[in-house]
Write a sequence for this structure.
C-alpha cells in the first residue's frame, strides 16, 4: 500500500486483490501507516479540539480497509485522495 498511492487508491487496490478468485496462501490486509494514519493525523492535527475529528477519520479508514481486506470495499472512504509519496524518503 505504499509507493505514493493515496489512501483511497490503496483501499481500491487492496479490494481488487482480495476480489481475485484465485487461491491466496495468506490473508492480504492493509498497512497501518498507509491505510490509516495519514488522514487521521491530518484531521487531528495535534489539537485538543480536533481529537473527535481524528477519531472519526480513523474509524472511517479502518472500516474502509476492513472491507477492502475482504474484497467488499465499495469506494470513497474519505474525501482525501492525496498522494502519500514523499520524495527522497
Amino acid at each position: 500500500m505504499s509507493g505514493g498511492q493515496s489512501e483511497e487508491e490503496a483501499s481500491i487496490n487492496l479490494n481488487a486483490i482480495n476480489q481475485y478468485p484465485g487461491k491466496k496462501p495468506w490473508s492480504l490486509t492493509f498497512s497501518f501507516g498507509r491505510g490509516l494514519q495519514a488522514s487521521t493525523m491530518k484531521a487531528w492535527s495535534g489539537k485538543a479540539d480536533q481529537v473527535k475529528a481524528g477519531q472519526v477519520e480513523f474509524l472511517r479508514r479502518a472500516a474502509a480497509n476492513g472491507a477492502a481486506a475482504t474484497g467488499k470495499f465499495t469506494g470513497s472512504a474519505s474525501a482525501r485522495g492525496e498522494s502519500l509519496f514523499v520524495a527522497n524518503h
